[in-house]
Amino acid sequence: METAPMKDMQAEPDFRRIDIDKVGVKDISYPIVVLDKANEFQHTIAMVNMYVDLPHQFKGTHMSRFVEILNEYRGEVTIKNFPDILKEMKSRFEAGTAHLEVYFPYFIEKAAPVSKLKGLMEYKCKYTGSLSDELDIQIEVRVPVSTLCPCSKEISDRGAHNQRGEVKVAVRFDDFIWIEEIIETVEKSASSPVYSLLKRVDEKFVTEQAYDNPKFVEDIVRDVAVNIGGLKAIKWFRVEVENWESIHNHSAYAYVEKHV
User: Per residue in 122-142, pLDDT tens?
Assistant: First the structure.
């Protein structure tokens, strides 16, 4: 017995004449491969968002196609094949614009400065890609740092207050850039890096390192901007710095955006 073809509701016409800029799926938990400078590849779990535009004359989008496309690139979702995935999205949906966002934790084995004991540091990262007439790809990395207040050091007789901070860097680039390059550039711009494992000799070292290298949030955002802008591959960057102040009931914040 033949079954009647099912009606395609998404293909039905819509008469409200409202174009939709982005429609798609969010928060797909998915395994991806990230290029690792030390180990060639790193496997991690990402949260993936996928969108396309929808012209006003169409009622809906076939959401299952997003997952189908993602499955076709199973094990091969890397920054290098972002353009291929975006092209496939545009083609499959007959869309004018496609967007892909991939959030993931990235781990680097990091040795303590004196004891040399190693621990894994987590860095929250994001790949963002859009394709319309032109391709736009960004890498964003969030780097924890330690800072020490220059004012507190100057006016205090017994030490200075310090705080944890976070530097969020987004870059557009030519060809390719390692996540590790961004992290190293940020960490050398802080009062001191942050580590996952420190013994007492290491705590002494990083405390004194920060004391000898005091920085306001303004200092850090400027130093990161200078150092990131000096990398050959970078053509645009955005730097945000937030310090969670240890003696104030607020955070300190600074922002710089620049084309190189």
Answer: 999 999 999 999 999 999 999
Q: What is the 3-state secondary structure (H, E, C) of the chain?
A: CCCCCCCCHHHCECCCCCCEEEEEEEEEEEEEEEEECCCEEEEEEEEEEEEEEECCCECCCCCHHHHHHHHHCCCCCCHHHHHHHHHHHHHHHCCCCEEEEEEEEEEEEEECCCCCCEEEEEEEEEEEEEECCCEEEEEEEEEEEEEECHHHHHHCCCCCCEEEEEEEEEEEECCCCCHHHHHHHHHCCCCEECCCCCCHHHHHHHHHHHHCCCCCHHHHHHHHHHHHHCCCCEEEEEEEEEEECCCCCCEEEEEEEEEC
Backbone dihedral region for residue 94 (phi beyond 0: left; psi -120 to 50: alpha; all else: beta): left
The alpha carbons of the chain give a radius of gyration, in whole angstroms, of: 23
Query: Between vectors from CA 105 to CA 126 and to CA 127, what angle results, nearest 5°?
Result: 15
Q: What is the pLDDT of residue 2?
A: 66
Q: Give the CA angle between residues 130, 134, 139 to the nearest 5°.
A: 40
- Count the alpha carbons within 13 Å of 185 in the hemisphere toward its beta carbon: 27
How does pLDDT run across 2-22, given as a tens digit for each residue?
Answer: 666 766 666 667 667 888 999
Q: Are 233 and 174 in contact (CB under 8 A)?
A: yes
Percent over 90 (pLDDT), the chain: 81
Global pTM value: 0.90
Q: From CA 233, how far away is CA 141, in angstroms rounded?
A: 16
Looking from the CA of 182 toward its CB, the CA atoms found within 13 Å total: 29
Q: Residues with Cβ < 8 Å from 230, sequence gap 6 or more?
A: none
pLDDT at position 9: 61
